[in-house]
Structures are given as structure tokens and as C-alpha cells.
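Researcher: Next entry in the queue.
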Amino acid sequence: MSACQDMAESLTLLATGALEPQEETRVRAHLDTCAACRRELTALQDTLGLAALPTLSPREQAVLDVLPQTTVSRWRRDQVRRAAHLRTTGVLMAAAAVLLLLLRPGVSPRTPSPSTLPSSLEAASTTEEDVLALEQWALADPLSDALDLTDVDLEDAPEASSSWDVEAEEFLSSPSLGESL
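Model: Structure for this entry, 181 residues:
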């Protein structure tokens, strides 16, 4: 007679010591009434006993006891080394930046050229029409033009790419926001 089918997995877990306390109580109660399951458990324990590791020597046990401390101390040492490396790299980069600023020839601040200013900003008096145009410009979606080109292959439309280049050149040549105020 073999062990009960519904207890096979529980017996294996009991033999390895991997059962929860409530489940172990239930399985042990079943073992009191079922001789076939007791024989199966004994056979499993004998088989697992053959594969069990030998007991640790005192030296091995000492190494195993200090392993977490050794691992943490090595991790901390590595963290300190990395922080020192980052700090040194940061100091060297800052020193190089200061050196470049000191050695750079004097540069006069950029002044906006009148040709790059929008016509609405050149006029001394603002009209209602200029205010409306400025409001429409502020509310415009800058990606709407790019999204409208989804049906058009960009390689087949050289005029679109050249207009983008002009806009980029105008953007790069225009004064920064802080200088124009």
C-alpha cells in the first residue's frame, strides 16, 4: 500500500523541514492514523539524509558567523572608495572649469542686433493688433507644424528641412532671454 495521494507533497515538505507549523500539525495528525504515510516519510528522510551536508567544523562555523560582518565592511569600504573617487573627479573638473574661465580671452557681452528682433518688439508703440498677434504666438503649439508633417516623408520635402535649419539658425543667433530684458 502506498502513501495517500493528497499527502505526497506534504510528506516531502515535512521531510525537508519546509512545512508551516499549522500544516505540520495537520500532517503529523494524519501520520498517527496512516501507516503507509509513516513508511513513506521514513523512506524520504533516509533518502534526504544521504544527500545532507556534513556538519561544519569549528573553523567553518566561525567563518560563517563573521560572514555578514565581513560582507558589510567590504561594501562600506567600496562605498568610501567610490565617494572619494567621485569627490576627486568633481574637484578636478571644477579646477579645470576655473582654469578655463581664467585663461579664456575677454569676451564682450553679446548685444542683440536690430535685425534679429521681431518686428512687434521693434515698434515703440504697441497697437491692439500687435498685442493680439503676440497672444496668438504665445498660445501656439510649437509641435503642431511638426505633427502636421506625419503624412509627408521628410526626405521628399527639402523645403521643410531647410525651413527648420533657418529656424534653428535664427534661434541660435538670437540673444538669450536674460540679455534681451
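Model: Residues 5-50 form one domain.
Researcher: Noted, moving on.
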